[in-house]
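Moderator note: this is an archived Q&A kept for reference. The question asked for a predicted structure of one protein chain; the sequence and the answer are reproduced below.
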Amino acid sequence: MLASPQSHRSITHSSPSLTSDRPLKRKRSHFALQETAPIPDFISLGILSEEQAIHYFHSFFEGCDRYVPIFDASDTFSSIRSRCSLLLNAVCAVGSGVSQDSSVDIRLLHFQLKRWLTTVILSPRMQSVETVQALLVSLHINILMLSR
């Protein structure tokens, strides 16, 4: 004898989060990706004056560049600024720490730089040789901080 359709019970399991009337929360990062806009340099943002940026650039190249041998004689302030603002920002951030200038909030420079590096890492369209150089320079920042 066959069982009638009414004699079968179906058991379904559902997740409490799916049956709730509340919408699911999305985890949010404090980083906002800016893939469409180019990354501005600290000078364009008004964080540094051009004179300060040049000073920090020269401070970096007075010795720090030996620890990160990725530059050559053709890498000048103007050439790096025209090629990649992210790289210029990384060099200026390290240079500001080396020069120990108290007129600029070094933490702000490093915070902005980390934000942009995260954006570049997560956005394949923005990756270039200069991006790799900026990542290496920022790695240098972290090594210097750990050695203090």
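Archived answer notes: The chain has seven helices and no strands.
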